[in-house]
Amino acid sequence: MFADLWIISLFILYGACGFLLLWALPAGIKIIRNWDFTSSTEGQLLLERKNYFVSALLQYALFFQIILLLFFLQLANVHLPGLIKGAMCAAGTLGVNAYGYTALYVKIAAVFIYLSFLFINYLDQSETNAPLTPQKYYLLFVAVLVFGFDLYVTVLYFAGIKPDIIAACCSVNFDINSAGIISAQTATQYLKPAMAIFYGLGLLIPFLMIRLRGRIIYLLVFLSAIFVYADMIALKYHFVKFIYGMPSHNCLFDIFWSEYYFAGYLIFGTLAAYLAGVLFLTLLKMVQVKHLAKKPFLERKLKWIATVGLIGHLLILNLYWLYWII
Amino acid sequence: MPEQIIKAVNVSKIFNKGRRNETVALQDISLEIARNSAVLLRGPSGSGKTTLLTLLSALTKPTSGTIICLEQDISHWQEKFLTGFRRRHLGIIFQNFNLIKTLSVFDNIAVPLIPLPLSAAEIREKVHEISALVQIDHRLQYKAATLSGGEQQRVAIARALIQDPEILIADEPTAHLDSRLSSEILTIFSDLKQRGKTILIATHDPVLNGHPLIDAVFCIKDGRLEPDHVC
Q1: Do A84 and A203 share a domain, yes or no?
Q2: Chain A hits for B17, Cβ within 8 Å
Q3: Are A161 and A30 contained in the same domain?
Q4: Pairing mode of beta strands B90-93, B167-171
Q5: How many domains does chain B have?
Q6: B41 is in which domain, residue-wise?
C-alpha cells in the first residue's frame, strides 16, 4: 500500500508540513524561554525577527495542511475505492479500519489549530508591544503534537488496509451498529428533531450574531456545536438525497465528485467559513487585546464572514431541496 | 514654551549587556527637541552621537529609559511598528549615504515610495519636485555610483525628504564634503527648516559651530550629556 503513488504523494505533503513545523519549533522554544520585550539586547531583537519568521512558516504549514486534507479526501474518495474491494467512496475506504475516520477528523482539527495560531499571531502583531508573545507559542506545541498524532494514525490506517478483504461501503450508512460519521440508528431516531434544530438554530444564530455582545459568544460556540451535529444528520439523511436525486443514497462523500459538480466543497466550505468566523470571534473575546484599535472593525468583519458562511450553507442545501419539490 | 517633538528621558544604551564585552554607549540621556528647530548633537568620535541618533530615529531601542516622538512612546515597539513610524514621520540621512549604487538617482530617490499605492506619474512628479529642491534634478538618470560626494549627499537628502517627513535626521551630513559643498547643504537645511521641518544633526564638523541654522546644541562625551563648553 505504501508504494502507491498517491500515498507517496500524501507523505511528501506530510514531509513539507513536518519540515516547516520542525523548523519553527526550536524558534518557538527559544522565544518561550528567553522572550523579554522590555529588553533591547541583540538576542531579543533576534527573537523578534524569529517571531515574524515563525508566523511565515506557520502560514506555509497551514497551506500544506489544507492541501493535505483535500488530497487525503480525494485519495479516500476517488483513488482508494479502486484498490479496496467493495468500496465505492470514502464512506467505504475510511471505514475499513478504526483509523480512517480518525485520520480525517485529526486533519480537519489541525487546520483549525493552525488557523487559531495565525489569528492569535495576527492580533499579537497588530499591537505595538506584542502582548500575546510568548504565550501564543504553546499553540505551536499543540500543532506539532496534532501533526505527530495525525501522521501516526494515517500510517496505521494505510498499514491496516487489506485490499483483498471486501469493504462495506454504502451499507455502513444503514447499518445500525456502523461506524461512519453518524450511525443510521441515530439518524432514524433523531432526524425530525435534528431538522427542527437545524432550521431553528439556522435562524437564531444569524440573529445572535447581529446582537453579539460580551459573553454571548460562548453561547454561540455551544449552539454552533449543536448546530454542526444536527447539520450532519440533516445533511446525511435528508438533504444529500436531493443532491443525488436518489431517495436511498445517504452518503456524505459522493457530493465531492464531479458528477455532482463538487457540491460537497461548497457545502463544507461555507460551513468551515462559519466555524472559522465563530472560532476567531471566540479567540478575539478570550485573548483580551486591550488596545487593538481595529478590534471593532475586525469583529464586524468576522461576524460578516460567519453569517455569510452560515447563510450560504443553509441556502445551498435548501436550494437543492427546493429544486426537487417545486 | 515651544511644542516638543522629541523627548528622551533617562535613556541608556548598553551593548552586549551582561557579557564580558559589555559596552555602555549612552547613560541617562534626557533631552527635549522643539518642533521646527534645528538641533546639533556634538561630540568627539566614539562619544555616542550616532547611537543617540539611531535611538531618536527609531532604528534601535534603548536598554532603559523612554523616547517620546510625536507624542508616542516608541521606546519598546515591535520592529514592524518602528518601520512604519520611520516611513511616515522620519527622514534619515546616513553618514555613508547608503545609496544603492547600481540604481539611477531617480530610482534611489523613489525607493521609499515603493510600498505606497502611488501611480508611476505621481512618483515621477514627487521625485522631480524633491530633486529640484535639492538641485540634483539634472542627474536623475545617472547611476548613483558615478556621482561626486556632494551629489550623493543631495540624493540622500532627496530620498529622506521624498515622503515629506516632519523630522529630518542627519548623521555627519558634511563629513565627506569640502567647505563650499558643506555650505550648500546647510543652505538646503535652512530652507527645509523654513518649510517647518525639525532637523537633528549629529556631527563633530566645526563648520556648524555658531551657524545661524542651529537653535540648540547638545554635547555628548563618553555617552553622557555634558555642558556645551566641554565639546
Answers
A1: no
A2: 39, 41
A3: yes
A4: parallel
A5: 1
A6: 4-230
Q: Does any domain span residue A198? A: yes
pLDDT tens-place string over residues A68-117: 999 999 999 999 988 888 888 888 899 888 999 999 999 999 999 999 99
Mean pLDDT in residue range B159-174 = 93
Contact call for B79 and A48, based on CB within 8 A:
yes
Structural domain boundaries, residue A275: 181-325
**What pLDDT score does A274 carry?**
97
> What CATH code is carried by the domain that includes residue B27?
3.40.50.300
Q: Which long-range contacts (CB under 8 A, 24 or more apart) does B54-61 make?
A: B55/B8, B55/B11, B55/B13, B55/B26, B56/B6, B56/B8, B56/B169, B56/B200, B57/B86, B57/B90, B57/B92, B57/B169, B57/B200, B58/B82, B58/B85, B58/B86, B58/B90, B59/B86, B59/B92, B60/A40, B60/B13, B61/A40, B61/A45
Mutate to test the interface with B, among A36, A40, A50 (most CBs of B within 10 A): A40
Is residue A165 classed as helix, strand or coil in its secondary structure? Answer: coil
All residues of chain B having their beta carbon less than 8 Å from the beta carbon of residue A127 are 78
Per-residue confidence band for B56, with pLDDT thresholds at 50, 70 and 90: very high
Cβ-Cβ contacts under 8 Å for A19 (sequence gap 6 or more): none
Q: Which residue has the higher pLDDT, A308 or B188?
A: A308
With a cut of 70, say whether residue B74 has pLDDT above it: yes
In a domain, A11, yes or no: yes
CA pseudo-torsion sign B219, B222, B223, B226: negative
